[in-house]
Amino acid sequence: MTAAESVHLAWLSYDVIASPAGAARDAALLNASGTHCPRFTKWRAWCSEQNMRLTLNLLWISWLMLAPSTVLAAELTRLEVQSLLASTPAGQAASFAGMSLSGADLHDLDFSNADLSGADLSGADLRGAKFVGSKLIGAKLPGARLNLAWIIGADFSHADLSGAILETLVVSAGLETLPQEAASFVGANLSGAKVTARFSLDDMHGANLSHLQASVDMRNQSMGLIRTDFSRANLADANFEGAELAYVNFEFAKLQRAHFSGADLSNADFAGADLTEANLTGAKTTGAKFTSAILDGVKGLSPR
Fold it and tell me: How far, in Å, CA of 111 to CA of 209, rounded?
């Protein structure tokens, strides 16, 4: 419904109750009596006041129908979120689209299949929360903590995850990610995010991963090499400018036109990756592996 249609609806409702025809009919009754009736005059005044109140209420309702969700949204508490999740009928998806959950303590809550598109989760505690099959398209998550969060099949397309913490994410039911379990980060903003997770098979084309903190901490590897994994992910046109990517796995990843200028790629593994027209100008590539990688038109990589 457009703004013009809503306002027209309100005035139409007013006209039905306080129309010129009604006013004329009342005036005719007053004239027919041939006398001035104070009670009748007061009654008319009271009716006009009530009609005006009704009209203003209808206009208010019309505005509420059209107002942006960001204007109407209020920050929800953990208990309110739990209540909404619990009250959602079986077989239906809970919706938090456009709602404000900024800074909320939502750790370990189950948002599986929920719609959080456009929701404000900035600075929220989402540790261990489940987003299996959830929609977070355009959601705001800067500074959010997603340690141990479940993101199997989740859609973070165009979401803002700048400065967020994404460590030890649960991305699959088994040791290997299946195609149907892959998450989507198309056009998402992960600039400055701290990451130690598997993004194998994920669609991350056009994502902003500039200044990403994903380098392996070699002081904490007693259980074997724990590193961020972008193997077989779609990272075409992704921006890794200034990112810390030492020891990160890019095996067989799609990295056409990816931007790595100034990034630390020390000991990173690009075996079998497609780096067509990628930009590695000023990148640190000491110990990096490019076995069987496609390097057509790569900029800034010294001959190997």
Answer: 25
Q: State both tokens at 67.
A: 């107002």
CA 106, 112, 117: angle at the middle one, nearest 5?
75
Half-sphere exposure of residue 265, counting CA atoms within 13 Å on the CB side? 23
pLDDT tens string 85-111? 999 998 899 999 999 999 999 999 999
Cβ–Cβ contacts within 10 Å for residue 75, how many?
A: 12
Kindly state the average pLDDT of the residues 27-36.
46
- The interaxial angle of helices 38-66 and 20-33, nearest 10 deg, is 170
Rounded Cα distance, 90 and 87, in Å: 9
As a whole number of angstroms, the distance between CA 303 and CA 111 comes to: 49
Lookup: tokens for 219? 């002081």
Give the bridge partners for 140, in sequence order: 120, 160
Query: How far is residue 100's CA from residue 140's CA, in Å, rounded to a whole number?
Result: 9
Structure tokens at 133: 């099959």
| Helix or strand holding residue 196 (H, E) | strand 194-196
> Which of these, 88, 140, 91, lies nearest to 109 by C-alpha position?
88
Burial 147-156 (b: 16+ CB within 10 A, else e): bbbbbbbbbb
Q: Please report how many Cα atoms fall inside a 13 Å half-sphere around the Cα of residue 54, on the Cβ side.
A: 15
**pLDDT, tens digit (0-9, with 9 covering 90-100), for 213-261:** 998 766 665 554 578 999 999 999 999 999 999 999 999 999 999 999 9
Q: Please list, in sequence order, all residues whose beta carbon lies within 8 angstroms of the beta carbon of residue 106, skipping any fewer than 6 positions away.
A: 78, 81, 121, 124, 125, 126, 129
Longest dimension (CA), the chain: 109
Residue 194, φ and ψ in degrees, nearest 5:
-100, 120
Tell me if residue 71 falls in helix, strand or coil. helix
